[in-house]
Amino acid sequence: MRINRLLVIGLLSYWVIGLAGCAKRDIKNIDSKGRNIICFGDSITFGYGVNPGEDYPSMLAKKLNVPVINAGIDGDTSIEALRRLEADVLSRDPLLVIVEFGGNDFLRNVPLETTVRIMREIVDSAQKKGAMVAIADISAGMFMRDYRVALREVAKEKGAIFIPSILSGIITNPSMKSDFLHPNVPGYKLVAENILRSIKPYLNKEIISKN
Q1: Domains, in order of start, for the chain
Q2: Rounded to an integer, what distance in angstroms lies between the CA atom of residue 155 and that of residue 142?
Q3: Distance between CA atoms of 97 and 100, rounded to whole angstroms?
Q4: Tens digits of per-residue pLDDT, 66-105?
Q5: What is the pLDDT of residues 23-64, one digit of tens each?
Q6: CA distance linking residue 109 with residue 159, whole number of Å
Q7: What pTM was computed for the model?
Q8: What is each CA distance from 153 to 98, 131, 160, in whole angstroms?
Q9: Count of other CB atoms within 10 angstroms of residue 86
Q10: I need a labelling partner for 139 at 20 to 30 A (CA). Which of 41, 45, 89, 103 fits?
Q11: Is pLDDT above 90 for 170?
Q12: At residue 1, does pLDDT exceed 50?
């Protein structure tokens, strides 16, 4: 019985490792030679509600051995983001681009089809530049569920990393927010942790800080 149990455990471990390897190979530009991680987004990326240096890209930078650039602009929709993609992302030697848009599209009634089309264009452009891409989802439960479903499909289709529910543990917790939506300092720290958890398997060991 013990031998059979060990055999099952061994086979399961092999299966899990195999699945992880397949998933890693599915991500485009996994061997990216870029130098910078670019956080490309709206107010959640910008760090609305906290001081400079307390935003999630700054907190992410403390965990990594490569520069992390905050390319977030408060209030941006995906439409506005596309206009600044070249200057703020493609021209900055991206290793990984973390794309976080959709909240303002939702609030301003930008059609979901438009948001999805633009997100595809952003992902395509970053990948053509040789960068990995991660799509960050800000949905929570039924709130923006249709965006979560659509963006997950874009990530799968394009070979991008999908980071689900970066506001998990924040959106329903007033002690983690500076207003009805935006995180406070502990909230942005949690956002950084949520994002790092998803991108860490795709980064070289040299990139990940030991701190």
Answers
A1: 2-202 (3.40.50.1110)
A2: 20
A3: 10
A4: 999 999 999 999 999 999 999 999 999 999 999 999 999 9
A5: 565 999 999 999 999 999 999 999 999 999 999 999 999 999
A6: 28
A7: 0.88
A8: 16, 19, 10
A9: 12
A10: 89
A11: yes
A12: no
CA 140 to chain centroid:
15
Tokens matching residue 103: 């909240």
Contact 75, 16 (CB under 8 A): no
**Which is it for strands 132-136 and 68-72: parallel, antiparallel or unpaired?**
unpaired
Helix (H) or strand (E) holding 185: helix 185-199
In terms of DSSP H, where are the helices of 2-158?
2-25, 43-46, 56-61, 78-83, 85-88, 103-107, 112-128, 145-158
d(CA 4, CA 33): 45
Q: Which two tokens stand for residue 80?
A: 């506005």
CB 122 within 8 A of CB 88: no
Can you tell me which residue has the tokens 């970066």? Answer: 166
What does the mean pLDDT of the chain come to? 90
> Which amino acid, 174?
P
Q: How far apart are CA 47 and CA 57, in angstroms?
A: 8
